[in-house]
Amino acid sequence: MKRILFVDDEPKVLEGLERMLHAQRKQWEMSFVASGAEALALLETRPFDAIVTDVRMPEMGGVRLLECVQQRFPATMRVVLSGFFEREAALKAAGLAHQYLAKPCDPERLCEAVERLCRLGPVFSDEATRRVVAAVGRLPSPGRTDAGLIEALGKPDVPLEEVDRILRQDEGMSARVLDLVNSAGFGLFCEFASLYQAAGPVELEPLSHLWLAVEIFRTFQPDCSIAGFSPEGVRRHSRRAARIAARLPVPRETFAEAVTAALLHDVGKLVLAVRLPGPLERALETAARENRPQCAVEQEILGTDHAEVGGFLLSVWGLPRTIVDAVTRHHHPAAEGPLLDGLDVLAVAHTANALDAERSAGADPWDSEYLAALGVADRLPAWRAMAEQIASAGGI
Ligand SMILES: [Fe+2]
Ligand SMILES: [Fe+2]
Questions:
Q1: Cβ proximity of 175 and 125 under 8 Å
Q2: What is the CATH T-level fold of the domain 144-393, as seen in this structure?
């Protein structure tokens, strides 16, 4: 049973929500309160999995309430349900929420969003991971212009006029997008988008995941002064891992997910660097001194590691389960049996990471039992040569 708290100062809205969500009674224990103060008082009495709040409320507004929840109850997922005319406050609140929903919101959409956030609980029951990720806040999902651009770029040989037309639709957005077009991230997007195309017809969804991946690298700009940590190093390793992934034997249907998983497998490192630079620095220093894998030391110091943090964050943002799973378990996958037709998404993330990482010191370890169970040990020399070739090619 999940515990969900709804906050809205309009009694009619609360009644409407209660009626609309009646069918959820079997899965959710729901509380409905009319103010931020009542919500905080209730949160003091027992933990809630998620809070769904309005933005414009007298006395304590939604923004203040979410700030308090973020600080005092970081493990509670924060959802904003806001009306159209509260745009400014809503934008502030959106930065504090994991999920932003506009009123009116149909019950399926609301349930789906809350369920998705809550499902993360049992998977990532580890409080430490949830706390780190819950404090990150939210990343903007692609807006309409981004979505149009993604669609246009997904078509083979898209005419430049088409891209130009999309960019001109929205001036503020086009400045941002042009910035992006001129960045290395955009080159990355085009490179992998064309790889997806080469593998077969491209669906819009994998392309928007790829777009999100590029946005994540752009958004997380950790402080470069953390000893032993280089954000650029993480980006380059991630890019190489994705290139390796694209050349491993992957079934066509999961090709895009496998490449995206490889690209995002270490995103948790950037999150830790932004949120917990001190403990990360200690973990890196200990790992180097004792010559142990970074993830093991992170577990000791933080109670979680970059794989769990990255996977959790991606699941909050709604990436597919296969990608989330591959990122979460990329150091320690557990084989379910020998491979039948190519590597699955998790196997690709593990293999691509290890093939690139083993070339440097303090690498993420191979799981040799896993490799043996997959029955691919004899292919390793050829894969190593391929990884070497990718590393020496350099590029963006
Ligand atoms: Fe890793
Ligand atoms: Fe890695």
A1: no
A2: Hypothetical protein af1432 (1.10.3210)
